[in-house]
């Protein structure tokens, strides 16, 4: 296999005496969908923020396309092709789908000495992106009138503007209907088919087992499993999340994690 798209080697992130992440080793290949699971407080959000450039690792190496990275802010990560679709989506309800896709990256055209927003160009490009994602979202629709699945399509279309290579998706199917869940999982497949890698952070076991190639489980800041989806099961992952199964990670070997020794807390 060639160079991994993303590689974390022994990444630790501490906040004073609190070790939010401890010795994380992770690789993600191009066009791979990796599910990230764990209970509240397991370190999922911290890991996403390290990858997205919000936090620098306290220890360890971060490589992207084989190059060491030292991001100091999210805009640095975005410049390399790393995009995040946060759970709240960060959309403006009073704007159209197209306006949200281009928020902060508006297309402009010159009229005499002035530059004005080129709404038509943004509608055309947004329509192309929605067609590419096979979404029914229309560029002129107001976000406030959209379903959860359509809102996800707007947020995902935004990542396509920048030619993303890795998209981090934080709980994209939380609080939406069954039909909309299907829409979002299809959007994930479409991104993968275009060669984009995805890290899917989710509490929803069926979603992870439906679209992911691998599942990674964190517990109390440690990685306790990194398994091909076909070699795991929802029961096994549940056991790893709760601590009923100590660890399947080779580095942990014989030493059970603190979660299995002391019970579990969020």
Strand order of the largest sheet: 6-9-10-3-11-12
Query: What gyration radius follows from the Cα positions, in whole Å?
Result: 20 Å
Quaternary structure classification: single chain
Structural class: alpha/beta
Number of strands: 12
Q: Which sequence of SSEs, written as H and E, runs from N to C?
A: EEEHEEHEHEEHHEHEHEEHH
Task: Give the percentage of residues in beta strands.
Answer: 25-35%
Uncertain segments: 251-266
As a percent range, the share of helical residues equals: 25-40%
Average pLDDT works out at 89
Query: Quick one: biggest sheet?
Result: 6 strands, mixed
Overall spatial form: globular
Separate helix tally: 9
From the N-terminal CA to the C-terminal CA, the straight-line distance is: 38 Å
Describe the structure.
There is one protein chain. This protein has helices at residues 44-51, 74-80, 97-101, 119-132, 148-161, 178-193, 205-211, 234-242, 258-262, and strands spanning 6-15, 18-28, 33-37, 59-64, 67-68, 82-85, 108-111, 114-117, 166-170, 197-201, 214-219, 222-228. By secondary structure, the chain is an alpha/beta fold. Strands 6-9-10-3-11-12 form a six-stranded mixed β-sheet, sandwiched between helices. The longest helix is centred in the C-terminal third of the chain and has 16 residues, at 178-193. The radius of gyration is 20 Å and the shape is globular. Mean pLDDT is 89; it is low at 251-266.
